């Protein structure tokens, strides 16, 4: 299995006044800057309540499986809080494919 980082972006779908108030009460002060890749996923959005980002780390055999699981997690979190959403779009990165360039430690 490979490790994937998935960023799921979406839009809030016309939340009513009560839902808007809950979203604003739950909003992180730094908004989208607070997103972190975790196994359970993290949701962040700005106070204008137009769009949101959900980041998570997923272990899966295939990239498509990772995207499906991440979108399922995002939808589950949003639905559990009663937040209406639409237009989920995901970007995925396989962490096993990333090569880290090391700088040489010697300076002359």
Structural commentary:
- This protein is of the alpha+beta class.
- It has a single domain (2-96), classed as Alpha-Beta Plaits, CATH 3.30.70.
- It is 27% helix and 32% strand.
- It has two helices and four strands, in the order βαββαβ.
Short précis:
The protein is of the alpha+beta class and 108 residues long. The chain has one domain (2-96): 2-Layer Sandwich (Alpha-Beta Plaits), CATH 3.30.70.
Question: What attributes does this structure have?
Answer:
108 residues, alpha+beta, Alpha-Beta Plaits, 4-stranded antiparallel β-sheet, elongated
Assign the CATH architecture: 2-Layer Sandwich
Question: What is the CATH domain class?
Answer: Alpha Beta
What is the H-and-E element order? EHEEHE
- Count of individual beta strands: 4
- Give the strand line-up of the largest sheet: 2-3-1-4
**Helix/sheet category:** alpha+beta
Determine the fraction of residues in helical runs and give it as a percent range: 25-40%
Arithmetic mean pLDDT: 88
* Cα gyration radius (Å): 17 Å
Number of domains: 1
């Amino acid at each position: 299995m490979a490790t994937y980082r998935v960023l799921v972006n979406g839009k809030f779908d016309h939340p009513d006044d009560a839902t808007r108030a809950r979203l604003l009460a739950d909003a992180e002060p730094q908004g989208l800057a607070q997103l972190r890749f975790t196994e359970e996923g993290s949701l962040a959005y700005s106070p204008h309540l137009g769009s949101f980002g959900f980041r998570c780390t997923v272990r899966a055999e295939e990239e498509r499986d990772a995207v499906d699981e991440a979108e399922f997690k995002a939808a589950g979190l949003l639905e559990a809080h009663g937040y209406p959403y639409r237009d989920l779009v995901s970007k995925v990165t396989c962490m096993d494919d990333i090569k880290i360039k090391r700088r040489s430690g010697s300076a002359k």
